[in-house]
Amino acid sequence: MKRFWFPSFFLAALIALSLSCGETTTGPGEAEGYYLGAEACKECHSTAYHEASLTKHFNTFVDDPKNPYDFVSAWKKAGEPEYCLECHTTGWDENKNNHGADEVEYRKGLLGVQCEACHGPGSEHVKGGGDAARITLSYDAGVCGACHTGDHNPTYGEWKQSEHADALNGLKSSSHARDSCLLCHSADYWYDRTVTLSTAQYGITCAMCHFAHGSNFEHQLREEGEKLCALCHTDEGARPPSTPHHTQDEMLLGIGGYEWPQGGPYLNSEHTYVIDERCIKCHMYMKAFEEGKPAIKGHTWKPRIEACRECHPGAGSFNIRGAQKNIENLLEQLEAKLKQQKNPKAQDYIYAKFDHDFVVNSGSRGVHNYKYAKQLLEDSIEFYTPSGDGAGPHRVVRGR
Ligand code: HEC
Ligand code: HEC
Ligand code: HEC
Ligand code: HEC
Ligand code: HEC
Ligand code: HEC
Ligand code: HEC
Ligand code: HEC
Ligand code: HEC
Questions:
Q1: Would you place residue 203 in the very low, low, confident or very high pLDDT band (cuts 50, 70, 90)?
Q2: Ligand 6 neighbour 229 (Cβ under 6 A)
Q3: Which residue, judged by its Cα, is nearest atom 27 of ligand 3?
Q4: For a Cys-Cys bond, which of 51, 102, 143, 203 suits 167, CB 3.0-4.6 Å?
């Protein structure tokens, strides 16, 4: 029996820990102490304070006379309902007397989304002279999800359905997983390179794409929206004989496939030129809330047909003019030919296999760049011969 005995404080700590883990999905968690307001953080965290003070978060309560759609105007127009303040102020928690904005006498210093909205009440941290153990620091999307939720702002709910939310599990399910893979699969590692596969906790959370304290780009993004996705959805310059993964950025640009010297010309679809917002245009379609219809915030990253209709009026599916079907057919033909190869080291086999994977791993079956994908597959089918020696009737010269 004795071996299973735990000191009661240890048990209490375990329970508190499990509670706070569950809790972090809706706010900064069960931090002790009371709210102070951002002015109390300014002295020791001048950089964070300066950055955060420029954000919409901090300024949501600043009346902007030039913007009739800002929070203050909308709130006044709606008759100043109190429930709006739950997400537009700091420390709203009616179950606790911890000097949050729900307690009227403290409200004035806590208007807007300030530091402690994400880090929890700061009194104990400050009393401890900046004791890091007594303040919350988390990459959990649930911290943001406490407010970015509901029919008007369903961002968190959308994100939860996305593959990004699952990116750490996705990685862990791979037998090739290494710590360095975390760079594109986990927010923890991105901020803290001491994190490993076994200690990482989160996938691609809000904080991996948005800088919580603000950034030089719109929507506090870590990179311009048009370039953001390409930080990870890139083949990273893969060349034969390696396997190209997540080739979306290169496919859209029309680069990176194995271009057969005797083939081509390798032209691009109009998508390469006319879609300035790039990935976001098709994968992050947004629509404002309407009565009875929740807003769409694009954070599932699933492409939506509404986005296509702007340029392809009346489109009923992504298979516009049978393009996806054509690519599928070409892939089938190429696969049948690849299967006949007896010598996997044959040079032209390696090239054709590379183009096959390049197209498949772009994931859109031709939508990203129909002309480029089609040409790569047609040339692979034409110029690759499964004779086994890699020479074939059309000897392939590497490079051009
Ligand atoms: C559940 C939390 C929550 C509640 C409750 C809430 N909001 Fe918001 N509100 C948000 C979030 C999050 C955003 C930012 C949305 C975005 O950009 O996706 C926002 C944005 C806004 C904006 C846009 C501000 C701008 O400058 O573009 C206005 C206006 C607004 N809210 C008004 C209100 C009003 C009025 C109420 C009460 C009737 C209210 N909100 C209640 C979370 C909330
Ligand atoms: C919208 C949520 C949010 C707000 C508001 C916010 N933070 Fe943070 N903070 C985070 C997140 C998420 C991280 C971890 C990611 C990072 O380092 O940017 C963080 C990191 C930090 C860190 C440790 C890393 C560093 O930058 O030194 C400090 C200190 C900090 N915040 C202080 C503050 C202070 C002070 C304020 C107010 C002036 C503030 N934060 C406002 C979410 C927030
Ligand atoms: C007396 C100075 C002081 C004040 C005031 C102060 N901090 Fe800190 N804070 C620190 C120091 C020092 C650290 C770094 C601790 C470390 O790295 O061990 C820190 C670290 C942090 C961290 C990172 C914790 C971690 O786990 O790495 C956060 C978040 C933070 N502070 C938020 C706040 C907020 C919010 C306020 C205002 C309510 C605030 N601080 C007020 C000194 C202060
Ligand atoms: C206490 C509630 C609350 C929390 C917690 C919160 N937000 Fe917000 N957020 C808001 C509100 C309210 C707005 C709208 C402010 C406005 O436009 O006036 C907003 C706006 C934003 C915007 C729009 C900025 C822009 O320039 O378009 C981004 C991005 C954002 N939040 C990301 C985050 C992230 C990331 C986190 C977590 C690290 C987070 N928020 C945590 C309430 C919150
Ligand atoms: C920090 C790296 C990173 C960034 C930035 C990023 N992604 Fe991803 N994305 C991933 C990873 C990793 C996965 C795979 C997750 C899994 O399945 O486990 C993924 C999955 C996806 C999926 C689902 C793929 C599937 O197989 O169902 C889509 C769609 C997607 N991302 C689109 C985007 C778009 C659009 C952007 C830019 C707004 C973007 N991503 C930004 C890393 C990233
Ligand atoms: C350059 C960024 C990046 C790096 C580094 C990276 N990945 Fe990924 N990974 C992605 C993206 C983006 C996706 C989504 C691809 C898609 O759906 O087309 C993904 C998807 C995956 C998936 C599919 C997940 C699922 O749920 O099906 C696995 C498995 C995976 N990666 C494993 C790894 C391994 C193992 C490593 C390290 C050897 C690694 N990744 C390194 C960006 C990266
Ligand atoms: C894979 C990267 C990525 C992740 C993860 C991500 N976002 Fe975003 N978010 C974006 C991009 C890109 C935009 C800008 C889209 C555009 O310009 O149309 C955006 C826009 C926003 C906006 C502004 C919306 C508006 O109406 O203009 C808010 C608010 C926001 N994100 C909050 C969040 C929150 C909260 C989370 C986590 C639950 C999150 N984001 C996770 C990439 C990301
Ligand atoms: C012209 C619109 C469009 C653009 C631009 C676009 N995509 Fe796509 N994407 C699609 C469509 C359509 C699909 C296929 C969806 C289907 O057939 O279910 C797709 C598929 C994907 C997939 C695989 C999804 C899955 O479920 O397997 C990923 C990942 C992806 N795109 C990422 C990106 C990235 C990253 C960019 C920018 C470099 C981008 N896309 C640009 C429309 C677009
Ligand atoms: C900004 C405008 C724009 C958007 C948005 C857009 N496209 Fe296109 N797309 C074009 C143009 C222009 C062409 C070339 C002219 C044409 O063939 O109609 C094209 C061509 C195509 C082709 C090649 C068809 C062929 O036979 O050559 C496919 C497939 C396609 N688009 C699918 C989509 C899908 C699916 C979406 C939405 C997920 C989408 N597009 C969104 C502008 C757009």
A1: very high
A2: no
A3: 132
A4: 203
Point out the ligand 7 atom lying closest to the alpha carbon of residue 225.
Answer: 12
CA–CA distances in Å: residue 55 to residues 19, 84, 114, 221, 351: 31, 19, 10, 12, 49
Write the pLDDT tens digit of every residue in 145-167: 999 999 999 999 999 999 999 99
How far is ligand 6, taken at its centre, from the CA of residue 163, in Å?
11
What are 62's two structure tokens?
């600043």
Q: How far is the CA of 49 from the centre of ligand 6 (A)?
A: 35
Instruction: At 214, list the tokens.
Output: 């603000």
Chain-centroid distance, C-alpha 344: 37
Find the largest Cα–Cα distance for the chain.
86
Q: How many residues does the chain have?
A: 400
Two tokens at 356?
A: 């096959």
Half-sphere exposure of 346 (CA within 13 A, CB side): 21
Q: Which residue has the tokens 């988390």?
A: 138
Ligand 5: nearest atom to the Cα of 225? 38
**Residue located nearest, by CA, to atom 6 of ligand 2:** 115
Sequence-distant (6+) residues with CB within 8 A of 397 are 261
Low-confidence winner among 26-40, 230-244, 259-273 (lowest mean pLDDT): 26-40
Whether the Cβ atoms of residue 267 and residue 375 lie closer than 8 Å to each other = yes
- With contact defined as beta carbons under 8 Å apart, do 260 and 249 qualify? no
CB atoms within 10 A of CB 339: 8
Query: Residue 92: CB within 6 Å of ligand 4?
Result: no
